[in-house]
Here is the input.
Amino acid sequence: MSAIEHAIPSGFRRTLCIFGREFRGYFTTPLAGVFLVIFLFLTAFFTFNVGGLYERDQADLRPFFQFHPWLYLFLVPAVSMRLWAEERRTGTIELLTTLPFTTANLVVGKFLAAWAFTTLALLLTVPTWVTVSWLGDPDHGAIVVGYLASALLAGSFLAIGSVLSALTKNQVIAFVICAVVAFLVLLCGFPAVLDIVRGWMPGSAGDRLAVALSSMSALTHFDSLMRGVIDLRDVIYFGSVIIGCLYINVLVVDWKKAD
Amino acid sequence: MGDDPILISARGLERRFGEIHAVRGIDLDVPAGQVLGFLGPNGAGKSTTMRMLTGFLEPSAGTVRIAGIDMADSPLAAKACIGYLPEGAPAYPDMTVEEFLRFIAKARGYVGAEATRRVDAALDLVHLGRVRRQSIETLSKGFKRRTGLAQALLHDPSVLILDEPTDGLDPNQKHEVRELIRKLGGERAIVLSTHILEEVEAVCTRAVIIASGRIVFDGTPQAMEAKAPATVTRNRLDWVFRSLTSASAVAEVTT
Here is the structure.
């Protein structure tokens, strides 16, 4: 009898293996090209035409970053919708989960690949930064923090989208629900919404509810980082959304994989 | 048999899907060297049982041990011993055959020259060399099934579980896959499910029939054939299969 034992790669190597397959997967379909072109076109359009980067006469990237939450609202679900729905539809999830991977390896590997992809899209906007630097003397620290905030926001939406993608075999449903949830996560920090809450519930109770709601909003934390200072609370907020969602994602994959 | 190590061992395997009791207590020991043909009507619980053996589904009750390793306690070590061809041979359509097998090699822990050697050996074994650079979505059903087999065989597993390996293949391809399975026997424990009863006669050393989630026959293909009365002269295995799995026979067993 030959030795039965088979080597199992380390957890890091297993996650890296999934990451590599996923990340390359984006570029074997038209998705990568379409996504990158639309993202770059829309960021440029909003920055220069709607945000009026030139007309403001200020060397900063606020008009550039301020539209990111609204772009991510429908671009991120387009990336996250296929993460699990596709595996379940084609049955490859059965292959993945019977290879020596833990569900956490799969969830983290896939999420990081998607995040790396949206971060790549974000990094391709660096020419905008160069333009501003060339025209004036921007606060580079604030811009770096802006990029960080944008990447964290995209990561949070991706983690939410990944959970929703694991709940359905239908990518369109995964897309729509992710966009709606992301919208609600943004909306609950919107001044107009907070005013309505205060209107409903006058006095200190309404104020407290408004503060609680806005502290749960991705928009509040995004805007806070936009001021150019890294506030640990904001980073913890995005970090806990991502980690919390990935944890739920593991449970959902185990629960739904055989449906 | 006898002294050969038991490579697959299932005890009291049960699985419920809500109200549906798909698998109702299966005990199965498969020693090295055995090729077990797993038979049963559609919906009898064949795929569900195989999915529990491979760790895809958790049993509602019972245990699975692969090469002595408990699937519930150390799933990774147990899964590392198994080569599995899921039903329909799922694979990533946008990858080429070679990329796909390289991914499997990496997942199995092979790197560098060893990974290349393993991929080449698997391609050779199932005669896929010709289409190695073709994307899987462009492959015919036969090639796709063989890609699934190559994936399952890549790490030279001691346990092979094949869910309908010849389904949808033409007679030549079926013959080829059967030859391959025969060749792979020896030191491995192989479980394959099929609807083709001649296949059991041709390649299996043991036949297990399940109906409504229970084992209704377990023996050699010869013993299975011997259950048919002498008056049945043609398709004797079919006759036995029908008599054991038809609705009335099953009702007798389950009550």
